[in-house]
Here is the input.
Amino acid sequence: MTRAEELVRRVTAVDWRAKEHDFGHGAECARLLREYLRRAALWVRVLQEGREGDFFAAGQPDRWPFFDLARRVDPGVRADPELLARLDGFLGAHAGNPLTGRICRAALDWASLSPEALAPLAGMPDPFEPLVGVLEAGGGFWIENGFVDFVECRVRLGTWQEHDGTGAAGFGVVRGRTSVRGDREKGGRGGG
Here is the structure.
């Protein structure tokens, strides 16, 4: 099974009807989202090195943090049309949020990257794995006032620079609000 086939299998295995009313996984989803933000920021930093301007337009609210990273690695990457149709058909019937569709399509493009395209970036983490985990763990979230809200927990989106691990303070998640203290105070790594 290819990485792209495995991704579609995982997404289509999510019971979206049960998940949309299940708010008990907010803390786990917030942790996974923070890991996605850290990984996405790492990819932005590495791929922008030596380029003029904002290669990702990551300063734009409609771009950060949910963007098609695979096309920045290989502009010619395209998911298998049959897999894309299967994914879109499932999401159209089960997951009404357009952001969920955008995330899943970006993750499918990522899973469709060839080993050759990823070879120069060996050792970098899969950026979309934590987001797929969010969907599997309870999935539903919305964005409001610069936060991703999981009902019982919120994660501040901030800028990619605030999540790349090089800043002194990251954004820690606490129940019902976000802490600017970062998680160094909790014994973890800072920077989101």
User: Anything to note?
Assistant: The first strand starts at residue 142 and ends at 144. Confidence is low (pLDDT under 50) at residues 167-192. The CA atoms of residues 16 and 93 lie 10 Å apart. The chain has eight helices and five strands.
